[in-house]
Amino acid sequence: MISLYTGFGCLLLIAAIFVLLSMRSRGPSQNDQELHRRAQRDFYRQRQNELASDLASGLIDQAQLAELERELDRQLVAESSGDSTTTSSSAKRGYILAVLISIPLLAITLYEYFGYRHDLQLRELQSEILSEGFSDERWQRYQDIVDAILVRRPDSGEHLVMMATLFRQQNDFAGALPYYQRLALLFPEDPNVLAQLAQARYLVGDRQVDQETRSLLERALAINPTQGTALGVLGIDSFANKQYVDAISYWQKLLVQLPAGSAEIGVISGGIAEAKRLAAAAGNMQTLEVNVSVATELGASPEGVLFVVAKSSDGNPMPVAALRVPLLTQQEWPINLLLTDADVIRQGKQLADFSELTLSAHISRSGTAIRRDGDWVGESIQVDVSKVADPLTLSITAVQGK
Predict the structure, then answer these.
(1) What is the mean pLDDT of residues 197-206?
(2) Structural domain boundaries enclosing 354
(3) Is residue 276 domain-shared with residue 219, that is, in the same domain?
(4) Choice among 76-85, 231-240, 255-264 with the minimum mean pLDDT
(5) What pTM, to 2 d.p., does this model score?
(6) Is residue 217 in a domain?
(7) Domain boundary among 92, 113, 134
């Protein structure tokens, strides 16, 4: 704040210096003009007397006298117009001086009008929070300052995001909701804003997806089909409404986006497993239960992604179904998984459409389905889909390339 006022003071000082210099230079110029005009008048009178003397002495006649007097008058007018040009230059200099003075005054006025003084207060408060922590009193001051800024600049997306995020981090979605609503008006095609507004409405509205909330979520996914917040909310809502197949679809799309080691992996994976179990119990899909273990002599499993792949015996290289499971940092083995109709890759097909399947499992260090040197692999097994009653077992026993 002090540096800002110092800057304004410097601007005013510079303008004052220009004014003083101009006033100082203007005095001698006005005296010079007065002396010049006096000399013009003296010369004019002297020249008239000379012309009258020449007429009296017979050197010129009356016609010549008239012509010489007209020429003398034209010369006087021309020199007088030069004086007016000087006066005009002085006027222009006055306009320039007025502009110089008005610039810092205008800057101060605009600074106050748009509330930029509050931005400096906000930075000072942020520094205070970083050094001393977030108290209730500081949080209230923070809200007051940002709200004061938004009164002056209601379309400041930066400050709207700031407040919505802070409320969200405190799990105060009711407080975040009005800021997300204003952001949605400013950025109606931003999928993140639409999804976060929908999530706030969902949590404030007793975890119910009403028509407007669903519309926001669907718009977000139409713009970005991988928008994580929208996929998560729709998955939860589908599960709550016993639409387990839909919940699995949403959560599987979300799961593939989560980085290895993310804390959300366990939650989403658990939700998918439970949705599969309930869907199978309701007769909505066929499942194959698969237990995947790692040989103890390999040691702790690496970070990466576990793939369980099912292929058919019809010669088509494309997998029938696949599971992609990001591993936790401290993964426990064995892992119990359900391979279901929801995991079938071939469009329009179900597990029951294939009499025999070949199942395999491997841990990809790079996160891709194609096996590479360094990946952990195991032997494949063949199963008769119609006769499977007990859980299937897949073991990872070696490191590829070693």
Answers:
(1) 95
(2) 268-399
(3) no
(4) 76-85
(5) 0.65
(6) yes
(7) 113
